[in-house]
UniProtKB/TrEMBL annotation:
Lineage start: Bacteria, Pseudomonadati, Pseudomonadota, Gammaproteobacteria, Pseudomonadales
UniProt keyword list: Signal
Keyword Ribosomal protein on entry: no
Name of the protein this chain belongs to: ABC transporter substrate-binding protein
Signal sequence segment: 1-26
Coiled coil: none
Organism: Marinobacter xestospongiae
Length: 317
């Protein structure tokens, strides 16, 4: 009898003491699927990038949200799920689906998203990939405090698109002029005229003008005339552009996770826009060769934010 009592007492200890494994705990069911929510990711053509992004997003969202690869069949069978589209091709694919799912587009610019905004029964937001040009121009202003003339190369026929930017720059005491490029053969000649006018060249995010084939010629021409180039993105800084602002993939993913959580909570998405969080990249070697003292990148970022905040404050007396 005593042996049985001891055995029973030991069994009770195993079941009731905290932190000790027990048969009851070992057989406890996994959390019900109802506790898990799902977001779909429509990837780019770069498989490694897609996997990296999905891993970052999953870490941001935690285990209560499942991140899985988008397929049209699965999306159609679960029409309430949000789709995160990586790049313009993914956005086009998702927006061709009928009915269209709620979509958050990343790695896209305003032009790629504009065609889809305003369509009926469309829930669409975006975190734009390219830095806003006003931010890039203010970066140039901080690097060259005495420079107040900004030159832009644009495709012929697109000059009017930049009128709002020129008006905005005037509020920061910057004069700007666009120089239309009539085809690649006219690029360097047009660039020479632009550099004769501007204290620095503000590079717009247009791959027809700024690409791997043209950037070397643009930079050599600019630096021979002792002019700096700002933008259009971090990759160009590595190629020899003096500086650009950018938002890291980790930061973009964190912002995307905030949008996803908002959608899961109330079914809404914030309007499309540029990320407010950004960093600065500077090619110090180029700065030294041009004999231009460039402040610390954190100082530049804070300076841009201060200028933008002061301007916003002047609009709200």
């Amino acid at each position: 009898m005593t042996g049985r009592l001891v055995a029973l007492f030991c069994l009770l200890l195993l079941v009731t003491l905290p932190g000790l494994p027990s048969a009851a705990r070992a057989q406890a069911p996994e959390p019900s699927a109802q506790f898990f929510r799902t977001v779909l990711v429509a990837g780019s053509d770069n498989t490694a990038f897609n996997l990296r992004f999905m891993d970052l997003l999953q870490n941001q969202l935690g285990s209560r949200v499942k991140v899985r690869t988008y397929t049209e069949a699965f999306s159609l069978s679960h029409p309430d799920l949000l789709v995160v589209a990586l790049g313009s091709n993914a956005l086009t694919q998702v927006q061709q689906q009928s009915p269209r799912p709620a979509t958050l587009a990343l790695m896209v610019d305003e032009n790629q998203v504009a065609a889809y905004l305003g369509r009926e029964r469309t829930t669409l937001s975006a975190i734009y990939h390219n830095p806003p040009l006003i931010r890039q121009a203010l970066l140039g202003k901080l690097i060259l405090p005495q420079g107040n003339q900004v030159a832009l190369l644009v495709q012929a026929g697109e000059e009017a698109r930049y009128d709002p930017l020129l008006e905005e720059l005037a509020r920061f005491e910057l004069e700007a002029r666009v120089f239309p490029v009539q085809g690649e053969d006219a690029l360097i000649a047009t660039l020479a005229r632009a550099l004769s006018y501007g204290d620095f060249l503000l590079a717009v995010p247009d791959s027809a003008i700024y690409n791997a084939r043209t950037i070397k010629h643009i930079l050599l021409t600019a630096y021979r005339r002792n002019r700096i180039v700002i933008g259009p993105g971090r990759a160009f800084v590595r190629a020899g552009v003096l500086a650009s602002s950018y938002t890291s993939l980790e930061t973009v993913t964190a912002i995307a996770a905030e949008r996803v959580r908002q959608f899961l909570d109330d079914g809404t998405l914030a309007p499309p826009g540029h990320p407010e969080r950004f960093e600065i990249d500077v090619n110090r070697q180029v700065a030294r060769s041009l004999n231009i003292p460039v402040p610390d990148t954190d100082e530049l970022a804070q300076g841009i934010k201060a200028l933008l905040q002061n301007d916003a404050g002047s609009d709200n007396p």
